[in-house]
Amino acid sequence: MSKNIYRFIESEMMRLSFSEVTDLTYVSDTIGNILFVNNIVEKYTGSKPEVFYAKPFTNLFHDKDKNKLVYAHRDALYGKSCRHECSLSGSGRNILCEVRNNPLKDETGNIIGVIGIARDITSRKQSEDKLKVLNESLEQRVVEYTTKLVEINRELTEKIENRERLKNDISKIHNAFTN
């Protein structure tokens, strides 16, 4: 482990900063091994932070997302900040997270690792899904009501035309009798 990462991980400021964060936060080295993970990991995975140290950060996530995570880690090592959705592993629940990977740089600007933040977006996604269903239902109802309104409008137009013809016929009959 580089001296810079070790100093970063061991700094009291870093520990205090990440201890109050409600999102899962981890630091990995350039090959992807976890050097630090905050205590919230236990809430999401059921395992203590120490279980993950010196192991691939991909162990935090569901197997189906590993390729996506590896590419995001690589992109962060090239200096790009990445955002993607992945599921956490180990909790027995499906916890969907928005994961952000950012390069970790030393004081000279060299990339020495990756800082990852995984925010639980399960509730938000469920709400979005419900909203999507409601929106589709509303759109369907709009189509149904519009169809009904078009039909009613056609019927009313037909009745108005019939009344106009009837009025014209009555007017013609009236004119015939008065002349």
Explain this structure to me?
The protein is α+β, with helices and mostly antiparallel strands. It folds into 2 domains: 118 residues, 2-Layer Sandwich (Beta-Lactamase); 57 residues. It contains 5 helices and 5 strands; from the N terminus they run H-H-E-E-H-H-E-E-E-H. A 5-stranded antiparallel sheet has the order 2-1-5-4-3, with helices on both faces. The chain is rod-shaped.
**CATH-defined superfamily of the largest domain:** PAS domain
The structure class reads alpha+beta
Query: pLDDT under 50 segments (min length 5)?
Result: none
Q: Classify the beta-strand content into a percent band.
A: 15-25%
Distance between the termini: 113 Å
Write the layout of secondary structure elements.
Layout: H1 3-10, H2 12-19, E1 24-28, E2 34-37, H3 40-45, H4 66-77, E3 82-88, E4 95-105, E5 111-120, H5 122-178
Antiparallel strand pairs: 1-2, 1-5, 3-4, 4-5
Give descriptors for this structure.
single chain; 179 residues; Beta-Lactamase; 5 helices; 5 strands; 21% strand; rod-shaped
